Each structure stands twice: as C-alpha cells, then as structure tokens.
Amino acid sequence: MKTNKYGFSTRAIHAGEEPDNVTGASAPNIVMSTTFVTDTDTDFSVQGMAEDGAWVYTRWGNPTIHRLEEKVAALEEAETGVAFATGMSAVTGLLLDQLKAGDHAVISDIAYAALAEITNDMIPELGIEITKVDTSNPRNVKDAIKPNTRLVYIESPCNPILRLTDIAAVAEIAHNAGAKLAIDSTFATPAATKPILLGADFVIHSLTKYLGGHGDALGGIVLGKKSDLATMRKKTAVHLGGSISPFNAWLIMRGMATFPIRMKVHEENALKVASFLENHPKVKRVIYPGLVSHPQHELAKRQMNNFSGIVIFQVGEIKNKLKEMVEKFELIHYAVSLGHHRTLIFYMPSDDLLKTSFKLTTSEQLNSWHEFAGDAIFRLSVGLEDSDDIIADLDRALEVL
Ligand SMILES: Cc1ncc(COP(=O)(O)O)c(C=O)c1O
C-alpha cells in the first residue's frame, strides 16, 4: 500500500500491510518458512539476487520482514530499510558495509556502550581509523574530518547521558567533506525526529526499544536511500547472517501500530516524572530534553517533536543502599533496556562506564560527561503506567536515601 499521502498514525497502522489476498485476513500473516519454492532459473548465489525478485530464502528476504521494513521506512520517510536480528547487528552491518581498511570515521564519544566498545577495539583492528569527539559541538566534528573520512556517526539524544547533537549542522559538515552521516535514532524515535529530512544518510534503530515497545522481541534496522543501501542486504545482512526472525518482525510490526499514541504517553509521563524528581530533596540533578533545565533545551525544542521517555537523574551519596532502594519498587523493574510499556530503571556509576566503554581522554570530554552524568546516574525509561503510580514508586525508593 502506498501510504506516503497519509498521516503518521495512519502510516504506523497501514504501511507495509494489506488484507491477505487469499484468505482476506485483515491482520498480516506470519510467513515463517525459511525457504521458498522457486523456478529453475533462480541463482543459487545471492550475487544473482534481484532487489524485487521472488522470495528465495529467508536470510535473503522474507514477506513478513519486508512488511516491517516498509512500515519503519514509511515512519522515517526513508526510501528503504534493511532489518536485522538486533540493533547491534544493524550497527555492525552499517559499519562493515560503509567502511573498509584505510577509511576513517568520526564517531560520537558517547553512544550506546556496545558501539563505543567495538569502535575502541574490534573496528580499529580491521584497519579502520576512528576518531571520537563530542559531537554536541559541530566544530569538533569539523576539526576531526580527514581526507579519508567516509562516515560520521552520532546518537541524539545519546545513550546514556541524553546529550543532543544538531543533526542538520553535522550533516552539512559530513557532506562538505564527502562523507555520509549515520544516526542511531533509537532514543528519539521517528515521533520526535526524522533525521533523513534533516540531511542524515542513514538512520539506525534498535527496534527492541520504542518501535517494538513491549520488551518481547529483539530487532534492528538501517534506513536510507535505495542507492546507499544497495550493497548492504547482500554484503552484511545475507553474508554475515544477522537476519531477524519473521516472528520477531511480526511482533515488532504489531507493536508499531500503537507507536504514535504510546510516544505521546511516554512523553507526558516522562515530563511529570522529571518534574517530580527535579523537586525532590534527595535528587541532585535531572536531565530530560523536555525540561527547561536541560543544557540543550533550545536545540531539543527545535529538533524534537516529542521528548521521548528517558529521564536520567543523579542522587547524593548512594553508598550501599542501591539494593535496599530497588527492593522498594512495587512496579518499576530494575533492568537494562528501555522504550518498553513497563517502567525500567538502571544505575550507572560514571567510573565504571568510563573504564569499560567510554575511554574519554581530554578534560573537555570528561567535563562534558560530568556535566550530564555527575558521579553516577539512574537511567529511567518511563513507561505507560499511570504517572502517579510511577511517581509513588520512585518516592518510596528515594526515601531509603
Ligand atoms: C541507542 C541504542 N542503539 C543500539 C542498541 C542495541 O540494540 P539491541 O539491543 O537491539 O542490539 C541499543 C540497546 O540498548 C541502544 O540503546
């Protein structure tokens, strides 16, 4: 179905779907088959795969996975997308497709921990040069560009400190240098920001988070122009084999039907929770793009149509009271991940993260980290429960301090 003429919520429901032409089923079927009966001139190698050819083998492509790709592309206003088994396989798929030995990439010095870790060792070990800078200042990106820079990679808001990057400004810098801009938009989601309309070439999502929205299916996607993604399906999805299960694709697609209304409630609840925390005597600092106190609130207002549902906050000395605090929660789950209907929280001490993931070297980088994260943060993914209940749960736990 051509859904570009329709609004965002309509696209979330209808894009990539149509009634089944055999049974009339209104909800999409799941095609779990790993292989497809083909005609005798089908190539055995994926090298012969035609973009719009018949289905051959699910690692190459599958009708249910294709529906998911169409749906996410419609929300991001991207030409096309390639789905992966996880957000991380989308990230590695993109890096390995776009970069080869001798190339250089400029990467945000704070981004999802696993991306930070592979760009500290695994990716440089392939002969790819990486420079990490604080991309919240576009000047740093400009200064890091080299003649062999092929890719600039950012997150906005970034995980875990919610620092923002001006996407349009960085896109211009990347393009002037002949490089592409990739952005992991998992935290913002297409309800907040459509990076392709701001000049980004690639958008990545961990579908495990807000787009799926229910914490029951891993998935990832890279979106962009057909010409930019032409080699990705063969080179990384098919050859490295990080294909998503059609069952997970179907679950994520089902979750996406309610994505626009979920994001409204995530934002509404997060604003109430962030304001409660900001006025709580035991809380030292709250960072949320929707608060006037966020250091980049003006950029957030300009670049985000929804402030999403992640709030971070610092408390005073926690010493050995974390366990006691967490035991007070009746509803909130102490768990990693985010973007689920359930509220999730996780404690992150700065020293640990700076040792394992973010090897910040300059005093400017460290100052910027501490401006947002202090000595430690709680990362709170505000869910869809009644906001009063989330607030009461937090209040009970904070009393322990
Ligand atoms: C911003 C961001 N990108 C990528 C990922 C990786 O996604 P996945 O867990 O689906 O591999 C995560 C996971 O937390 C994330 O927060």
Question: Could you explain how this protein is built, in words?
Answer:
By secondary structure, this protein is α/β, with parallel strands linked by helices. It has a domain at 260-398: Alpha-Beta Complex (Aspartate Aminotransferase, domain 1). The protein has helices at residues 8-14, 63-76, 87-98, 113-118, 138-144, 167-176, 232-240, 246-256, 259-278, 297-303, 322-327, 350-356, 363-373, 387-398, and strands at 80-84, 104-108, 129-133, 149-155, 180-184, 202-206, 220-224, 283-287, 310-315, 333-334, 344-349, 376-381. The strands form 2 sheets. A 7-stranded mixed sheet has the order 1-7-6-5-4-2-3, with helices on both faces. Strands 8-9-12-11-10 form a 5-stranded mixed sheet. α4 (113-118) links the parallel β2 and β3 (129-133). α2 runs parallel beside α8. The longest helix is centred in the last third of the chain and has 20 residues, at 259-278. The chain is globular. The structure holds pyridoxal-5'-phosphate. The site of pyridoxal-5'-phosphate has 14 residues, from α3.
Short description, anyone?
The chain has a domain at 260-398: Aspartate Aminotransferase, domain 1, CATH 3.90.1150.
Which features would summarize this protein structure in a list?
single chain; 401 residues; alpha/beta; Aspartate Aminotransferase, domain 1; binds pyridoxal-5'-phosphate
